[in-house]
Amino acid sequence: MAFTCTDIFKIIGAIILPPLGVFMEIGLGKQFWINVLLTILGYFPGIIHALYIIFKH
Predict the structure, then answer these.
(1) Where are the transmembrane segments (predicted)?
(2) Does this model's pTM top 0.85?
(3) What are the C-alpha distances in Å from 53 to residues 5, 26?
(4) In the chain, where are the structural domains located?
(5) In this predicted model, what pLDDT tens digit does every residue of 3-57 receive, in sequence order?
């Protein structure tokens, strides 16, 4: 699986603001709102979830 330039921007977005990375990957869906909740509860769980979503898709 090769990374593209957009994948790098998604990863950077996920580190700065985790819901942004999820939004750029899958849009406004269930996973986006789960990531918003995880980010509110703790910044690092939001990052881990966002990176998981980006690497999974």
Answers:
(1) 7-26, 32-55
(2) yes
(3) 17, 8
(4) 18-56
(5) 788 888 888 989 999 999 999 989 999 999 999 999 999 999 999 999 999 998 8
User: The tokens 């819901």 sit on which residue?
Assistant: 19
CA separation for the pair 21, 38 (Å, rounded): 13
pLDDT at 3: 77
By C-alpha distance, which of 24, 15, 2 is closest to 46? Answer: 15
Classify residue 3 by its DSSP letter. Answer: -
How many CA atoms does the CB half-sphere of 45 hold within 13 Å? 9
CA distance 24 to 11: 10
Provide the 3-class DSSP secondary structure of residue 1.
coil
